[in-house]
Batch of 4 targets.
Target 1
Amino acid sequence: MTRGVSILFYLFIAAVTCVMAGQVCLDQTGVLAWDHGRRTRKSFQNRLLITGIFWILFLMMALRFDIGNDYRQYTQTAHEAYVGGYVVTEAGFNWLVRLLYWLAGGEYYELVFAVFAFVTLLFFLKAFARQSASFSQTFFLFMTLGLYFQTFNTVRYYLALSIALFSMKYVLEKDSLKFVFWIGIAALFHKSVLLVLPVYWIASFAWKRWQIVAGLLASAACFLGKSIVLKIALVLYPSYKNTIYLEGGGSWTSTLRTLAVLALYVWFVYGYWHTCEERVLNEQKWYRELRFYGQLNLLALVTGTFFSFLPVVTRISYYFGVSQLFMIPLILQKIKEQKIRRRMTAMIFAACILYFVIFLLQAHQDGVKLLPYKSWLFETERYTY
């Protein structure tokens, strides 16, 4: 496909799946899935739609060829892991590659990408279905904020990110064993996810204003002493030494988006709900959940600004900022006045569509490389080592 046709193809896939998601109705208060031993019609329709969405997006991910800025690098890394060469990837990735290549009887890296696509998408959709205030709105954000298409890059990281999002439910439910278990599984593929173990737990508590101020001052101090902080970071991630990543990994678009979401959060809590006592709000389960997401987004903003000098810091920020997928629908759901809710929804959706169009127009650039779309079904070229 040419670049222009690929953009239209991506728009078509996004539009079709978002329309399908718009017909999914998952009532978090508990609509009966079974009635007198039989699955209800609505439950069956929901499962059918979500399954259809899954297979459309999975096939697009699994059939791609040379899409993503590190596709070729992963084929080489998989080869080195298979033959016992030196690799910096985690044990889970290495074991999985060896198992898949052994089962396939050869170095079929397409199978590796397909398995990662399957599991990553499964965790994302599972998290949307069981945790979001609105599956359709969360899925719309997932597509239009470009998160789905970014899973074509750094497949180990986005697998870990999907599990981190999935595990947020256990943090909110204070189920520490399940939370640690799933993050431990994710760490077998990308060890950076271990960062969420303390951070998600800390974000589940209500922060006092002096704690926020102290945290901001400490972050500013880290920025002033960035040479020391960078040396510590390179001890944890020595593979980034003498690479272009030392130029910094922040993303101004992600930072601006996080700032806009935080502005929405501040308006909702301190503007829209200003007449309600904080003590009363803290007793509400939905408010504690919203506060958790809001504090994570504050951390995303801090890491994207004060720690922008760190290599690929965007990956750290995404562990916090991915909560926007749940936070925005929850805010929209809790706006009482229908007129205000519709107006805010329209504004947010319009901004997301504009963001998506801009994202696609830049998706061919180095560091992204999502255009043009190619499939190994129609390509004779293969990477061999």
Note: DSSP finds 18 helices and two strands in the chain.
Target 2
Amino acid sequence: MTSITQANFVEQTEFDQLIADNKLVVADYTAPWCGPCRVIAPLIDQLASEYGDRVRVVKVDIDKSQENAKKYGIRSIPAVLLFRDGEVVENLFGLQSYEAYSNILETQLRL
């Protein structure tokens, strides 16, 4: 039986340290009231399960982390940002396929 890893929500206070401490971080900016966010939630969890040993995958609730969302210019959700060494290197807005997310991760892992 395969264990499923889920992306955990992170609080605003721990986010900066998280991106500083991890080479690659995928941050899914989401909210409980967002329909498209609920659609991609299983894809984000799949990323956490598949890449969790090489990439930190987290979720950020924009209602609870408004300053974080503002800092990174999040104006619409779902928004998935990829951080490399603390800097945003990729961003995807709206509904995307699992392949779109995994392709970006594969590219970043090869760098």
Note: The helical segments are 12-21, 35-51, 66-71, 98-110.
Target 3
Amino acid sequence: MCENAADPSAWLTIPELVEALDETPSRVRRLIDEHYLIGSRRNGAFAVPAVFIVDGRPLSSLRGTIMALQDASFSDDEIIDWLLAEEETLGRTPIAALLAGHKSAVRRVARTLA
């Protein structure tokens, strides 16, 4: 995992993502454009929550979850907030459930939000 992943408040800017993912800036932007990662400008510079990076790669179950939430008309900020907030039906945060391998349960809840 990324060294900042244990801290849900840690965010990575594009240059930090380039280093964490060992990719070019254009490849990092493509990962964002193709919904493998999602970020926000809420704190100034565009950044992605560090917890979305696992073993130097975007969390594999994140893309489908992002797309399900976009289908439910969530904005990027709303998607990030939902992933990082406690979800009563899951008994934890959706990102924690994804990290534990429970993508079906997370997506089932996400689909009910439409």
Note: The beta strands are 11-13, 47-49, 53-54, 57-58.
Target 4
Amino acid sequence: MIVRISTEGQYRLPDGDADRLNDLDNEAVAAVEAGEEERFHEIFEQLLELVRSDGTPLGEDELEESDVILPPPDLTFDEAGHQFTGDGLIPD
């Protein structure tokens, strides 16, 4: 699975992490829908950390289509309200 973190780059994430990534995405949607800003930022940081720690950065010369595109790390809660809705960034 190829995951792009906007403003950072792409990572090759082990397929085994797909379910955890989806779970965090769903938790982020729930936090946004509940208006829980602090909880959203905690979950979003976990989501980014999962990609950074388990993923392998792709080289600048590697061009791969991203399976998932995550917003930039400095995403505001207002901006999250437009992206973390419904099925979230990763449809079930």
Note: The chain has one domain: 2-83.
